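[Automated response] Your request has been received and processed.

Submitted sequence:
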Amino acid sequence: MKKLLVVSLVISNFVFAQKTKSDTLQLSTLGSAPIEKKQKPEPLSKKGQMFVFFGWNRAAFSNSDINFSGNGYNFQLNNVSAQDRPTKFGIVYVNPGWFTVVQYNFRAGYFIKDNLALVLGIDHMKYVMDQNQTVGFKGHISDPEYAGMVQNGQVNLADEKFLTFEHTDGLNYENLGLEKYQNLINKKNIDLVWSYGAGIGVMFPKSNIKLFGNERSDRFHVAGMGTDVRTSLNLVFWNHWMARLEAKAGYINMWDIKTTLNNKPDKARQDFVFGQVLAGIGYTFNTKKYK
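Generated structure:
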């Protein structure tokens, strides 16, 4: 009987010891569970990310009616055509001292939410009225010399005496937009990200205009507003360097274009639709630290 009691105590102690060891092991295992690391997010995707971009554009403009008013005249030229004026490719495109000569674009974006960025942009386009055209005329001119250039309700602009008209330094659209981003391809060192959005902003042109032989107007001035819709493809290398191809279409209304150099009340107004394609390079980065 005593032997049986001793054996029972030995077995119970062994079982209890094993259970305690097992419980200790489970607690130890739970206590040493690895902490999940915060993974570095995909580029152009997370709140707090930023990017900067610089590129170059080509633009196209619809025909527009341009109204001119001032002392002794108030008239409209109908269906006026215009083009952009791209600089020939060369060192000017990469020389920082000459970057404003070309048709350039700048972007700075900040992701206010996942996949949604607030983007500040400057679109430096160039708008040049086609000189070799005859356009419709409506209104009056008191000066007989220039009134005599109007024939059968039309005026020929080819000789430049009546008017030269351009926004070449330039047709500056300074805008703020919202853009939605979506990752299309996600590889180890390369991402392809699509975006779309819309923007609105002010027109701040430096208009080169010479009307009726007056001294040419050539100064920066807030002339009106613009709005646009845009889409882009962004190829991101090694999570930071990016190549961007963007297309946009928009509407511009400028109701206070300065046409003389002094502070006379002379001005012009016009509105038109524009299209733009641009490409360039940029850099994106996180403002938050990730392990």
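Summary generated for your ticket: Residues 1-33 have pLDDT under 50 and may be disordered. DSSP finds two helices and 16 strands in the chain.
If you did not submit this request, please reply to this message.
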